[in-house]
């Protein structure tokens, strides 16, 4: 885990760059990155969040925490991808993850519930 935390800034920066360059593979990778964190968020004000906003526009749902922090929620990213995946290149690891029992029985229902409770 410490190695992953140390590598995260560089990873975020590279993914933001891929989004900015309109790499058709980048959206699926961003979605995978968030959804496998089960309830993960991408801060809107981060470089990655700003690149995402330029990719999807300002009509994408933004979660605002009690502290006023604006974030993109993994569940919203999941549903966005399911609606837009034909426009981009898929990420095979995401497709594999989505079919796993844990994702189908735990994570995706969590995202459905969060959407209903909005």
| Contiguous helical run count | 6
The overall pLDDT, averaged over residues, is 90
The amount of beta strand, in percent, is 5-15%
Strand element count: 3
Number of domains: 1
How is the main sheet built?
Answer: 3 strands, antiparallel
Using the CA coordinates, give the radius of gyration.
14 Å
Q: SS-based structural class?
A: mainly alpha
Helix content: 55-70%
Strand order of the largest sheet: 1-3-2
Order of helices and strands: HHEHEEHHH
- Shape field: globular
| Intertermini distance | 32 Å
Low-confidence stretches: none
Question: Could you describe the 3D structure shown?
Answer:
The chain is mainly alpha-helical and 118 residues long. Helix content is 63%, strand content 8%. It has helices at residues 2-20, 26-35, 47-56, 74-84, 92-99, 101-116, and strands at residues 41-43, 63-64, 70-73. The protein has a three-stranded antiparallel beta sheet with strand order 1-3-2. Helix 1 runs parallel beside helix 3 and helix 2 packs antiparallel against helix 4. The radius of gyration is 14 Å and the shape is globular.
Features:
118 residues; mainly alpha; three-stranded antiparallel sheet; 3 strands
Write the layout of secondary structure elements.
Layout: H1 2-20, H2 26-35, E1 41-43, H3 47-56, E2 63-64, E3 70-73, H4 74-84, H5 92-99, H6 101-116
Antiparallel strand pairs: 1-3, 2-3
